[in-house]
Design brief:
Elements lengths: L2 E5 L6 E13 L1 H5 L3 H10 L3 E5 L6 H7 L9 H8 L5 E8 L1 H9 L12 H5 L8 E3 L3 H11 L10
Antiparallel strand pairs: 1-2, 2-4, 2-5, 3-4
Helix pairs in contact: 3-4
Bound molecules: guanosine-5'-diphosphate (GDP).
Amino acid sequence: MAAVPVIHPDNQRTQPMTVERTLAILKPDCVRKNLIGEVIRRIQEAGFRICALKMVKLSRQEAEGLYAVHQSRPFFEELTTFMSSGPCVPIVLEKENAVADYRTLIGATDPAEAAEGTIRRDFADSKGENIVHGSDSAENGRIESNYFFPEHVIVANA
Ligand code: GDP
């Protein structure tokens, strides 16, 4: 993947910043609130390129598979019930530093703790119904993206 040289703020050395991909999901509450357009507008305004996008309604079993890592958490049933309660919009995003920058754009898991101007702070009702998903690493971004999109339909969009 392409590497863009940038000046590192700490030591002023030229370091490569890697172009990454991450998976965003506009969750069922985002769709129900008619916020698809507004959230995608904010994502694009922040410099992310869209490489794949669709609307899909997850079955309970598919939601459980997507969030298998949270299987033992007390909120697992609530989470998978919510994620299979209506259509959602998975989107593969690309940009330098995509994973961290997207998480900054959406804000903390709990909207009450999310920074001002973030998507969750502005639109989410609760920690459970928090409008958007974001991958926590580039590796998980790839795995989660492939949950919805086979590699050959994720397009370069530079
Ligand atoms: P994220 O990476 O910010 O989405 O947060 P996590 O990976 O910790 O959790 C995944 C998702 O599980 C969150 O986005 C929430 O939808 C849900 N979740 C996390 N904590 C809670 C909780 O305490 N209660 C409920 N109902 N859902 C939660």
